[in-house]
Amino acid sequence: MASSFLSSGIIQPLPLRSPDKPQTLFDHLKTTSTFLGSTSKLRSVSLSKPNLPNPHRRSTVVAVSDVLKEKKTKSAASSSQLLITREEGLELYEDMVLGRAFEDMCAQMYYRGKMFGFVHLYNGQEAVSTGFIKLLKKEDCVVSTYRDHVHALSKGVPARAVMSELFGKATGCCRGQGHSGCHRAAFTSKYKREVLKEDCDEVTLAFFGDGTCNNGQFFECLNMASLWKLPIVFVVENNLWAIGMSHLRATSDPEIWKKGPAFGMPGFHVDGMDVLKVREVAKEAIQRARRGEGPTLVECETYRFRGHSLADPDELRDPAEKAHYAARDPITALKKYIFDNKLASEAELKAIEKKIDEVVEESVEFADASPPPPRSQLLENVFADPKGFGIGPDGSYRCEDPKFTEGTADV
């Protein structure tokens, strides 16, 4: 299982512990952790027993390191040794600029009263969405969270459809009703391949944040996905904060990627502010799932440039921490790579930015002019049989019957 990863040169096994030299649980963590704050503050626990193999664990599974190594090149000028082609570079840049511009416009529309409720923006995390989703096929699935606008854009949902959805309009991608992804996508792919014997290599990406990783359901999902060798990649967008709770204060071990090998799957840690590094890890994990080799856990250390939501004044995070990550803007980093390797000119990137501005402006005009959902749509997707409960035979809503609230209505 792990051999394809090891041969890629991207990750390395953890060093084996000598039986004659006692170590602490955090010896390796102290030397490799890249998280803000010092892991040396963690309590050390001595291990007196040698690291003997577990006869019940599959021998093909090994723990892997947490750092994506740079690809070694003899000459940066050689196009054959570049991490991306010109076409790929322009595609990545356009997708990331679209995500940033769209979210900035969402902030404007929220403060103008065009959007309601909580709006969670993705600014700063674009390298993760673009690095993973732009490698997918049309048939592949993405399971997202509430911070999902940019995931939808990267997967190809038109900006006007996403904006209309946020406006609560009938022309939105979910007809103004809102929608969450469905986890059965990975099971469907496995069923097609193994039961129906179809030539199916569909993959599912499941995105979630660091706050999810201390919940029991997270561990249950890792266990079942590994047990059934599901074609799924678990992508942790670790932006270091779960609403107002620092990741370092919420978990006993801040390195989430280590939980993968514990359930029999490889684990990665990658710089989520670098789209090219994310893309290299994503290639390995997605290809592994397509080959039927099971799930992978990838932890992308990233950062959101805004508060948890637009209702969050963002007063809890240290200004120095925010400045540190702002200086590592993933879009700026990609632009520099493109210029340094002469993949495109400044005029070409300016043309992309102008095109994106027009797309986003048009999405707002379209959403603003679109009609709200009809009243008849109110109870759709609420009851299994809306006409048998929510809507009467004459088409009127049963809840409008005074007897309904008295508990005497014939339902």
TrEMBL record:
Q: Name one GO molecular function term.
A: oxidoreductase activity, acting on the aldehyde or oxo group of donors, disulfide as acceptor
Q: Which UniProt keywords apply?
A: Oxidoreductase, Pyruvate, Thiamine pyrophosphate
Q: Which CDD domains match?
A: TPP_E1_PDC_ADC_BCADC
InterPro entries, per this entry? Answer: DH_E1, PDH_E1_Alpha_Subunit, THDP-binding
Question: What cofactor does this chain's UniProt record say it requires?
Answer: thiamine diphosphate
Q: Which residues form the Dehydrogenase E1 component domain?
A: 95-373
Gene3D superfamilies in the record, alphabetically?
3.40.50.970
The entry's protein name is Pyruvate dehydrogenase E1 component subunit alpha-3, chloroplastic
**Organism this protein belongs to:** Vitis vinifera
